[in-house]
């Protein structure tokens, strides 16, 4: 079991965070952004960054090469749709994508937007962790959460009407 602190301060104990979200035991801030037969997209639950989307497999697998052909096709299509929505709806021009296989839970991709306020931490992969920690510690306030919730609704509306 893992102890996890969510961006809104809730503390939860789960075996697998992704499974808990997909099964509905844990509701991410703002709820589900988009869902397919194989994947679930939601705002990252730990870091309050507008437009930071997690695309997680519903099936409990850890590696990209464990996806079936149907899952892989759905993954690429869904990743593309979400990125299109980030750009067209939220005006996000740059995104860092992360996926790692040494995670304690299952396959998911982080889609981390880059905003001007982030560049004081650098422009490379090493800047992402300090950016996320800064967001949790310094930008986790009512106004920022309100902006994030509006962004979630805008992404959800776009994705559910454009597919």
Layout of strands and helices, then pairs:
Layout: E1 2-5, E2 11-14, H1 17-23, E3 32-35, E4 39-43, E5 53-57, H2 69-90, E6 95-98, E7 108-113, H3 128-138, H4 142-162
Antiparallel strand pairs: 1-2, 3-4, 4-5, 5-7, 6-7
Helix pairs in contact: 2-4
Record the strand order, biggest sheet. 3-4-5-7-6
- First and last CA, distance: 37 Å
Order of helix and strand elements from N to C terminus: EEHEEEHEEHH
Helix content: 25-40%
Shape: globular
How large is the share of residues in beta strands? 15-25%
Number of helical runs?
4
- How many beta-strand segments? 7
Class by helix and strand content?
alpha+beta
Radius of gyration computed on alpha carbons: 15 Å
Chain-averaged pLDDT: 90
> How would you characterize the largest beta sheet?
5 strands, antiparallel
Uncertain runs are none
